[in-house]
Amino acid sequence: MENEIELKLMLNADNIPVMLDWLARLPSLAQGQDLLANCYYDTADQFFARHKMGLRVRTKNHRHELTLKTAGNIVGGLHIRPEYNLALPNNQPDFAALVAHYQLQFGDIGELHPIFSTDFERQYWLVAYHGSQIEIALDQGWIKNTFGKAPICELEFELKQGKIADLFDLLDTLPNASGIWLSSLSKAQRGYLVGNAAEIAKNIAKLTACNEKALSPTAQYQFEQQLVDFIRLTQDPALIALYHQQNPDQPIDSVDYLYSYTYLTRNLAIMRSLALR
Hints:
There is one protein chain. The chain has helices at 16-24, 47-50, 95-102, 164-171, 187-193, 197-209, 217-234, 237-246, 261-276; strands at 2-11, 28-42, 54-60, 63-69, 73-75, 78-88, 113-129, 132-145, 148-161, 180-182. By secondary structure, it is of the alpha+beta class. It has one domain: Hypothetical Protein Pfu-838710-001 (Beta Barrel). The protein has an eight-stranded antiparallel beta barrel with strand order 1-6-4-3-2-7-8-9, surrounded by four helices. It is globular. The protein starts with a strand and ends with a helix. GO terms for molecular function: inorganic triphosphate phosphatase activity; metal ion binding. InterPro entries: CYTH-like_dom_sf (IPR033469), CYTH_domain (IPR023577), YgiF (IPR039013).
């Protein structure tokens, strides 16, 4: 079991050349490229989705690995969560073997079914920054489920060794460009949502029913980021009104603001204060 500490940025595709130029100027220890095929599984009653977990089989270079990602903590785009990995002889998910290997406490969860896939090309750089090592991965590809598909265009920063403060210091050097934004939605969460109007409506209902004032400061910020993710996804006027109600000092004149460099840097500053306090 490992604790994965990563931060995810979503990109407009036209920002890729800007990001590649920025990456080329960083002190790289290693770099490479992989093609990753991922199939996510769940039960008929969505056991893993209900418990905010993800179960996937990843195939890379003809090798297969089963990964269980547990809920952990997600603050904005910063993901800190335990994950369990097990090598497989083929691309079939042997959940019983993973449970036995790590002695996890699961009962009979039922039969597993493939739910969606995330297939993408990953370019990666291992960067030395201050006293830390940070892996930066540029992922480009597609999320596909039975309802449709959506593009993947993401930049992920994973702290391999060192301090979270160094990760945020590196992010302070990002190019000043719009169309780069933090997202609390993982590829797995997006896999359940793509084209699925009922699932999107269910998540919106949870957001509008939430008593944000009763939450802790960290939970309030995470709620705001979930709200903003669904505003970007749907541009729902009710969600925009809810955002205005809870953030009267930050009126959204246009949804474009949520993709702006100003909004990105504001959120990075908040996340730094929450992560380092």
